[in-house]
Design a protein that fits this description.
The chain is 29% helix and 32% strand. The chain has 188 residues and is α+β, with helices and mostly antiparallel strands. It has a domain of 130 residues: 3-Layer(aba) Sandwich (Aminopeptidase), CATH 3.40.630.30. An 8-stranded mixed sheet has the order 1-2-3-4-5-6-8-7, sandwiched between helices. The longest helix is centred in the middle third of the chain and has 16 residues. The protein is globular. The protein starts with 11 loop residues before the first strand and ends with a helix. The mean pLDDT is 94.
Length: 188
């Protein structure tokens, strides 16, 4: 059985960044960039009850804040999920994969920080949690997001047609990417 995110020794450091679990008192810092037009364009406006949701995020996965020199510059979400399995095999499919998501302050993009943070999240998923698969999705028009997925070694598994409602109110195509632990380790 995989380990839990609570078992990870936080914070986790990379060459330039620190990833740590979000705390309720981080809500205003996160809201400060989640409300910016470049972020709202893809994620939509933060809900009116943002602070309440932020204080109880378990239904959305675990939010890891990305810090550079002690300042919050973004986030990575890890949501551990069950894989599909026949009913008699469900116990083998519980908690074996994770959905990843991320957001960065617009002024911090283009510097490799998101790539570094997502690579760290993938390493946590495979090495520390023992998961077998990670996946992520984005609107097909969100070029920086799918290019990030490709940079970290994820492969495109699907191109969906008009399946996601963009914050603009327009239905848009989507891309789904994934990476298996064996692919990440170079065993496939």
């Amino acid at each position: 059985m995989p380990h839990q995110l609570d078992d990870v020794s936080w914070p986790v450091s990379t060459a330039r960044l620190t990833l740590r679990r979000a705390r309720p008192d981080d809500a205003d810092d996160v809201l400060s960039y989640r409300s910016l037009p470049n972020v709202v364009e893809w994620m939509g406006d933060p809900p009116d009850d943002f602070h309440t949701r932020f204080a109880a995020p378990e239904r959305f996965g675990v939010l890891l804040l990305i810090e550079r020199a002690g300042a919050i510059i973004g986030e990575v979400m890890i949501k551990i999920e069950d894989a599909w399995a026949p009913l008699r095999m469900m116990s083998q499919a519980q908690g074996v994969q994770a959905e990843l998501g991320w957001s960065l302050r617009p002024e911090e993009t283009g510097k490799g920080y998101a790539t570094e943070a997502v690579e760290a999240a993938i390493r946590i998923c495979f090495e520390e949690l023992g998961l077998r698969r990670v996946f992520a999705s984005c609107f097909a028009a969100n070029t920086p997001s799918y290019r990030l997925m490709e940079r970290v070694g994820m492969r495109r598994e699907a191109h969906t047609v008009l399946d996601g409602l963009h914050p603009s109110g327009e239905w848009m195509d989507g891309y789904y990417y994934a990476l298996l632990a064996d692919e990440w380790r170079g065993n496939l």
